C-alpha cells in the first residue's frame, strides 16, 4: 500500500531514515513519525504530510519509499482558526490528491482529519482528543472554533479510531458511529531497563503552559513539598518550559522558582533516559484523551502521580499509578511526598508501571492500524 500519513509530526525522528536535515522541527508529537517508520518497515510506501509554522513555503523531501511533505502554517493561532484552518487544509488536501496514495491515515479531527475526508481518498481518522471537554477547561475562542471543526469532521462518513475507551464511548454515543479502540504506541526498545535514579527528583513533561495542563497547580504545591524534602527538585520539560519561557515567567512573578529547573524542549530520543532517571513523574493535566507522557514514564520505570478524574488517565494506567485530585494542591503535594518518602511504594509502582506499559508496544499497535488500512484499501477497490 501507499499510505498518506497526515498529522503533526516530530520530524527529527525521520531524519536518520532519510539521511537529511529538515528545515523545521515540526511538532512535539512523535506518534505520527514513529508510525511512519513502522509502516515503512512493514514494506509499505509512506508519504508523511504535515505542517510547520516556521516555514514560508512547502518543503518536499526527495521522492522515495518514505517521502515527507511539510506545508507552511500561519504562525498565529487566531489567524489559523478564524477561517477554520482553510489555507492549511487546502494545502494538505492538494498533497493527498496529487499523490497516487491508496489510503489516508489522518491524525486529529481538525485540519488533517478534514483534509483527509475531503480528499475523496479512503481515509481512516484517528480521534486523539475530545474537543467539548477541552472547551469546558479552556474557554477560548480558538477552542470553540476547533470544536466546530471536530463536529464537521466526525459528521463525515468513514472509519474512525481512538486511543482510549474514554474517547471511543463519546464518539459512539454522540455520533452513532463505530470507533475502533487502538491505543497510542511507544517503542519499548528505547527505554533503558536499568538507570540510576537521581534522588528526590520530580519530573513533568508537557506541551505548552496552559490551564488545561495545570502545571501551575504543581508549582503552587511545590513549596509545601520542599518543607519536608528540602533537597527535592522539580524539573519541567517541554515547549513552554524553557528558561524565561511562559511557565518560568509565571512562577517568577509568584516567587515559585526555588528548586525548580526549566529545561524546555527535549529531543524525543532523549526522553526515555531522561524520564528513567527521575524519582517521580508528576502529571497534573485536567484532561487527557490518552496521556502519552504518562505511558512513557511507566515504560521508563518511573512512578507516576496523575489525576483521578483526568479523562483516560485511570483507564490507561490501570492501577499502576497513584491517582489524586490534581485540582487540589494539597492532594498533589501529599501524593508526591508519599512516594518520595517510601522506597517500597516507589518500587511497587515501578514494577506495576513496566507491566502496564507493555500493552502499548508500538509493533502491535502499528499492526492493528495496518490491518484497518488494508481492509479500507480493499473495500475501496
Can you summarize this structure?
This protein is an alpha/beta fold and 381 residues long. It has helices at 15-18, 31-41, 77-81, 86-97, 111-118, 131-137, 141-155, 165-175, 215-228, 246-253, 271-276, 292-299, 313-317, 329-341, 343-357, 362-380; strands at 2-6, 45-52, 59-60, 66-72, 103-107, 123-126, 160-162, 179-181, 201-205, 233-237, 260-264, 280-282, 304-307, 322-324.
Task: Tell me the CATH superfamily of the largest domain.
Answer: Glycogen Phosphorylase B
The overall pLDDT average reads 96
Q: What's the overall geometry?
A: globular
Output the helix-strand order: EHHEEEHHEHEHHEHEEHEHEHEHEHEHHH
Helicity, as a percent range: 40-55%
* Name of the CATH architecture of the largest domain: 3-Layer(aba) Sandwich
Tally the beta strands. Answer: 14
Strand order of the largest sheet: 3-4-2-1-5-6-7-8
Based on secondary structure, the structural category is alpha/beta
What name does CATH use for the topology of the largest domain?
Rossmann fold
Please indicate the count of domains: 2
How big is the Rg? Answer: 21 Å
Unreliable residue runs:
none
CATH C-level class of the largest domain: Alpha Beta
Query: What share of the residues does DSSP label as strand, in percent?
Result: 15-25%
Taking the sheet with the most strands, its summary is: 8 strands, mixed
Count helical runs.
Answer: 16
Query: End-to-end distance, in Å?
Result: 12 Å
Amino acid at each position: 500500500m501507499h499510505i498518506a500519513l497526515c498529522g503533526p509530526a516530530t520530524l527529527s525522528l525521520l531524519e536518520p531514515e532519510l539521511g537529511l536535515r529538515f528545515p523545521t522541527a515540526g511538532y512535539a508529537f512523535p506518534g505520527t513519525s514513529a508510525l511512519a517508520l513502522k509502516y515503512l518497515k512493514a514494506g509499505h510506501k509512506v508519504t508523511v504530510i504535515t505542517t510547520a509554522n516556521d516555514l514560508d513555503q512547502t518543503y518536499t523531501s526527495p521522492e522515495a519509499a518514505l517521502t515527507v511533505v511539510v506545508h507552511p502554517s500561519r504562525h498565529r493561532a487566531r489567524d489559523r482558526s478564524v477561517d477554520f484552518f482553510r489555507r492549511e487544509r487546502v494545502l494538505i488536501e492538494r498533497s493527498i490528491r496529487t499523490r497516487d496514495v491508496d489510503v489516508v491515515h489522518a491524525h486529529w479531527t481538525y485540519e488533517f482529519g478534514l483534509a483527509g475526508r475531503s480528499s475523496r481518498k479512503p481515509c481512516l481518522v484517528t480521534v486523539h482528543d475530545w474537543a467539548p471537554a477541552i472547551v469546558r477547561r479552556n474557554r477560548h475562542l480558538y477552542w470553540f472554533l476547533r470544536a466546530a471543526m471536530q463536529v464537521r469532521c466526525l459528521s463525515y462518513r468513514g472509519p474512525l479510531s481512538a486511543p482510549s475507551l474514554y474517547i471511543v464511548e463519546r464518539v459512539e454515543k454522540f455520533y452513532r458511529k463505530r470507533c475502533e479502540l487502538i491505543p497510542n504506541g511507544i517503542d519499548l526498545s528505547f527505554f533503558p531497563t536499568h538507570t540510576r535514579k537521581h534522588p528526590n527528583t520530580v519530573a513533568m513533561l508537557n506541551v505548552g503552559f496552559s490551564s488545561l495542563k495545570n502545571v501551575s497547580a504543581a508549582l503552587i504545591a511545590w513549596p509545601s513539598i520542599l518543607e519536608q524534602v528540602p533537597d527535592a527538585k522539580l524539573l519541567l520539560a517541554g515547549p513552554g518550559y524553557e528558561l524565561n519561557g511562559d511557565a518560568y515567567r509565571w512562577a517568577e512573578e509568584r516567587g515559585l522558582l526555588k528548586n525548580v529547573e526549566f529545561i524546555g524542549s527535549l529531543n524525543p530520543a532523549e526522553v526515555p533516559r531522561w524520564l528513567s532517571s527521575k524519582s517521580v513523574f508528576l502529571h497534573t493535566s485536567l484532561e487527557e484523551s490518552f496521556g502519552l507522557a504518562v505511558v512513557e514514564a511507566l515504560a521508563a520505570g518511573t512512578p507516576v502521580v496523575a489525576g483521578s478524574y483526568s479523562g483516560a488517565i485511570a483507564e490507561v494506567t490501570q492501577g499502576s499509578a497513584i491517582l489524586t485530585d490534581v485540582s487540589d494542591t494539597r492532594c498533589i503535594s501529599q501524593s508526591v511526598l508519599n512516594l518520595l518518602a517510601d522506597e517500597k511504594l516507589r518500587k511497587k509502582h515501578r514494577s506495576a508501571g513496566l507491566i502496564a506499559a507493555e500493552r502499548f508496544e508500538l509493533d502491535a499497535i502499528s499492526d492493528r492500524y495496518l490491518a484497518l488500512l488494508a481492509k479500507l484499501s480493499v473495500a475501496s477497490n
